[in-house]
Amino acid sequence: MMDELLGAGNTLLDYGFILLVYAGLFVAMRQAAPRLEVGFRRSFGVLYIVWTFGVFITNYLFYRLGFMSFMPWLNNFIHSF
Fold first, then answer.
1. DSSP 10-28
2. Claim: this prediction has a pTM higher than 0.70
């Protein structure tokens, strides 16, 4: 069960480290990128939600179709969102 969720050989500590890396990338990109204009925030939110759910579902479908190897559920969630 845990191998399906986390992937073979992965621990919660491994995922914690990856989340720290993502947090560092978020901070770095926030410093370099301009702020989103108020008029585009709703459009950005809709695109973000549609894109992330689409990527999450497509990763699993590509696994089922044989185009890619299985991506553990937690890894797919973190990567997609």
1. --HHHHHHHHHHHHHHHHH
2. no
Alpha-carbon span 17 to 37, nearest angstrom: 32
Q: What is the CA radius of gyration of the chain?
A: 16
Percent of the chain with pLDDT over 70: 99
Q: Are 47 and 40 within 8 A, CB to CB?
A: no
Give me 17's structure tokens: 């480290």
**Quick one: average pLDDT of 7-26?**
87
Residue 74 and residue 5 in contact, taking contact as beta carbons nearer than 8 Å: yes
Q: DSSP labels for 48-80?
A: HHHHHHHHHHHHHHHHHHTSS----HHHHHHHH
Residue type, 30: R
Q: How far apart are CA 71 and CA 31, in angstroms?
A: 31
